[in-house]
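Recap for those who missed Tuesday's class. We walked through two folding examples back to back. For each one, the amino acid string is listed first and its predicted structure tokens come directly after. Nothing is annotated here on purpose, so try labeling regions yourself before you check the end of the notes.
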Amino acid sequence: QVQVVESGGGLVQPGGSLRLSCATSGIIFRLYAMAWYRQAPGKERELVASIPSILSGDSTNYADSAKGRFTISRDDAKNTVYLQMNSLKPEDTAVYYCNAEFGDRHWGQGTQVTVSS
């Protein structure tokens, strides 16, 4: 059974930081490309950042809104992907979802990030 579980969301003031984690089980994690998406109320889900698997020659990829502020990383020994978010803005408020893809795709349940003073 595949499990994808996000954690680390919460309420933070503008300019603050959060680190999201996504722990997986039931997949050969190192084979999967991993990504973070987000969905704000009334908006479509959008890609925030992605990181390739060891099989790929691709590099990490960021949405323009995330460049310079967010960093995606992975620990294949822990089957976990992270999203370090700095200099958070109110417009970063959304539910953040983790995605694992290697032919098939698996989603987590999401973690709420709220940026507000």
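Example two. Treat it independently of the first, because the proteins are unrelated.
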Amino acid sequence: QVQLVESGGGLVQAGGSLRLSCAASGSTFSIHGFGWYRQAPGKQRELVASISSGSSTNYADSVKGRFTISRDNAKNTVYLQMNSLKPEETAVYSCNARNSLGIVIAWGQGTQVTVSS
């Protein structure tokens, strides 16, 4: 099994930056890709960014140019650098891990990001 633990959330003013981390443990050899998602109160969870084993990345249109996803395979950790944050991006941010078939094999517990105006 794979376990994921997020960290780095908090309170930031609009226009500020945060870097989220998602550390994987357990059967990390089974991880192919990671994804960062967010869910705001009363809204559906949405994909923010994803990264494959080859470090190919994909971003939601709303965060392109402001967010950067990266991974450190030696540390089994994926990061989400978030710049120019907006109040509407206040949400719980969670990461997941996928295997080579694209099947989600683990979710983290989430970390709260609050952007004040």
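Answers for example two:
The two ends are 40 Å apart (CA to CA).
The chain has no helices and eleven strands.
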